Amino acid sequence: METGQGCVKPAAGPLGAGSTPETATAPPTMKEEVKMNLARVGHPAPDFEANIYLDGGFQTLKLSDHKGKWIVLCFYPGDFTFV
Amino acid sequence: MEVFAASTDSRFVHKIWQAEELSKMVPGGVPFPMISDAGGLIGQVYGLFEPAAGVDIRGRFIIDPDFVIRAMEVLTPEVGRNVSELIRQVKAFQHVRATGEVTPSGWQPGRTALKPGPDLAGNVWREWNTDQAF
């Protein structure tokens, strides 16, 4: 749990083997080392740590901390948009 | 069941959206964590990041208690989700996990599920018909 409420502290983002998704720009020599676990049904969910807003405060959330429960993870294009 | 929502907006924008709009649709605001995927790195790993727009497109994932992804649905942004279908899928996966049965097309809680095995091969028509797909 993050204690600070500052505006520049980054969360770790995607976690796992390699820290960069395959689609990220990287020198060819590095790309071979990157084996980021991409999301596929029937396979483990890619773990990540992210900044969140909840109950009026800022916190950090690690997805795998919620292992053992059913999780619904929803992405949407943007706040204040229409659908 | 835990629900998390994620976009490329900052948590500061999430705060103001909750205050200015969501709280007018849902009393007290939405109760689940609003994830900031600023930069879209999480969206890339989940196959949803659209670089031209700089956003994560609409997608949702059902993850079971073993942390395995059971279902995913991805749409371009113009069309919204069907929450009833999401709940149906969660209940179906929970039924499968609890019983070892499998759920045919259109299954709803209380309807016939199937016990996979040699005796069922070629005999699904005895247990299920297309009327049950809807």
Structure description:
Chain A is mostly beta strands and 83 residues long. Chain A has one domain. Chain A is 5% helix and 24% strand. Chain A has one helix and four strands, in the order E-H-E-E-E. A three-stranded antiparallel β-sheet of chain A has the order 1-2-3, with no helix packed on it. About 11% of the residues of chain A have low confidence. Chain B is α+β, with helices and mostly antiparallel strands and 134 residues long. Chain B folds into two domains: 78 residues, Glutaredoxin, CATH 3.40.30; 53 residues, no CATH class. Chain B is built from four helices and six strands. The chains are: A mainly beta (83), B alpha+beta (134). The interface between A and B is large, with 48 and 64 residues.
* Protein structure class of chain B: alpha+beta
CATH topology of the largest domain in chain B: Glutaredoxin
- How far is it from the N-terminal to the C-terminal residue of chain A, by CA? 32 Å
Gross CATH architecture of the largest domain in chain B: 3-Layer(aba) Sandwich
Number of helices of chain A: 1
Multimerization status = heterodimer
User: Within the largest sheet of chain B, what's the order of strands?
Assistant: 1-2
- Largest interface, chains and sizes: A-B, 48 and 64 residues
Largest sheet of chain A: 3 strands, antiparallel
Distance between the termini of chain B: 26 Å
Q: What would the average pLDDT of chain A be, to the nearest integer?
A: 80
Number of strands of chain A: 4
Report the β-strand fraction of chain A as a percent range: 15-25%
> How many structural domains does the protein architecture of chain B include?
2
Strand order of the largest sheet of chain A: 1-2-3
Low-confidence stretches of chain A: 26-34
The shape of chain B is elongated
Q: What does the radius of gyration of chain B come to?
A: 19 Å
> What string gives the helices and strands of chain B in order?
EHEHEEEEHH
